[in-house]
Amino acid sequence: MRIKCPACHGEFNLEAALDDAAGRELMAVLADMPAEASRPLVAYLGLWRSKTRALSWDRALRLTREVLALDGDYLRLAAALAETVEAIRGKRERGEDTRALRSHQYLMRVLEGTPAGGGRAAAQAPAPAQGGGAAPAGGGQPSRSMAGLAALNQVREYYDE
Fold first, then answer.
1. pLDDT band at residue 156, thresholds of 50, 70 and 90?
2. What is the helix (H) or strand (E) element at residue 4, kind and residue range?
């Protein structure tokens, strides 16, 4: 099944994307996170990509694990990620620094100045899971990411049979 990227409109094979273990695990980690935290994390991962190269699934998964290990408070981490992305994108737009990130130092400095809970009640991060379920931790409606991951897992299971 070929699908189209909503950002670049490039087409790719969904089965091939599901064959990559690191890609599946990264999607599961992101789907288990609240949307308020997963979106800034994905934007932050984009800062690690150079203009001419794509970020591999393995590297994106490793970077995600490193970021999640920095702080167990998703809301605080999300606030720091959003501030970091905004600042670095601003520098790039002004032409001050267009290089890809090489370390988490800037994020760690921003995180030091970010209040607990990102200014709201803290949401503690569970240990990263090996797989991803479709049910949210709170028992409410699953996020769109979780629902999408569940659908992708069903497709994968269909082809594995």
1. low
2. strand 2-4
